[in-house]
């Protein structure tokens, strides 16, 4: 495992990280003072600010590399990062963890988008939704099901959809906790995104154990340039491009 503490700065490249994922935080820690972790406005507060492009562009102008590591299903941030990298003429790299893989024991129904859920989920379903608040407008047509929308931050905002409620909780969750929650609220379907990684996996394993269908929204196809699956691979790429281990 390599860590870069910022010593010998004349031979170390400056890296801007467009964050939003666990990998972004890990990479920032591993790079130490040679990195700047930046989050889109909507990852800090509700709503995306109009200045995101200008702010990231300013950071990229003085960077040697821009690493795109938002949530793997955040198409808007990937598009923003790719656009800024081209305009700034800076090396760019995307970190995208591997997707989850369906097995013969899983009951997955693939969806191209969250909006498609309205045409696929049966009437009367009680659905655990883990898509994030930004996706809720896409579920307005899903009036025939009751939605339990998971939130990882505590708030008292009114529920914006016709039928449903928020479920507040603090990650990480275990498989046993997910099974207990699904039984408590009589969940009969899960609506989620194929984020990959260990953090969200317990709900998938719980649905498998209970024999529940999982409506799985595919990742956006918006990644450009070189893509690596892990922080370690990103460090290897940066080492090659910027001689960070010099």
TrEMBL record:
Keyword Oxidoreductase part of the UniProt annotation: yes
UniProt pathway: Cofactor biosynthesis; adenosylcobalamin biosynthesis
Key words of the record: Cobalamin biosynthesis, Oxidoreductase
GO aspect biological process, one term: cobalamin biosynthetic process
GO terms, molecular function: precorrin-6A reductase activity
Pfam families (UniProt xref): CbiJ
InterPro entries: Precorrin-6x_reduct (IPR003723)
Domain of life: Bacteria
Protein known as: Precorrin-6A/cobalt-precorrin-6A reductase
Organism field: Marivita cryptomonadis
């Amino acid at each position: 495992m390599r860590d870069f503490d910022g010593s010998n700065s004349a031979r170390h490249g400056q890296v801007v990280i467009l964050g939003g994922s666990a990998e972004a935080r890990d990479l920032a820690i591993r790079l130490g003072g040679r990195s700047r972790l930046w989050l889109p406005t909507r990852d800090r507060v509700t709503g995306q600010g109009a200045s995101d492009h200008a702010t990231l562009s300013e950071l990229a102008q003085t960077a040697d590399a821009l690493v795109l590591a938002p949530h793997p299903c955040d198409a808007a941030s990937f598009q923003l990062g790719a656009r800024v990298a081209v305009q700034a003429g800076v090396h760019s790299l995307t970190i995208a963890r591997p997707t989850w893989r369906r097995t013969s024991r899983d009951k997955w129904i693939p969806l191209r988008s969250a909006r498609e859920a309205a045409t696929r989920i049966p009437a009367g379903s009680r659905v655990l939704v883990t898509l994030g608040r930004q996706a809720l407008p896409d579920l307005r047509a899903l009036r025939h099901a009751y939605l339990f929308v998971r939130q990882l931050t505590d708030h008292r905002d009114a529920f914006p959809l016709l039928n449903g409620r928020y479920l507040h909780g603090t990650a990480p969750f275990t498989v046993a906790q997910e099974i207990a929650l699904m039984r408590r609220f009589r969940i009969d379907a899960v609506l989620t995104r194929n984020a990959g990684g260990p953090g969200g996996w317990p709900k998938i394993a719980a649905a498998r154990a209970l024999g529940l269908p999982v409506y799985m929204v595919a990742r956006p196809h918006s990644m450009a340039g070189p893509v690596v699956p892990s922080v370690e691979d990103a460090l290897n790429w940066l080492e090659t491009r910027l001689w960070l281990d010099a």
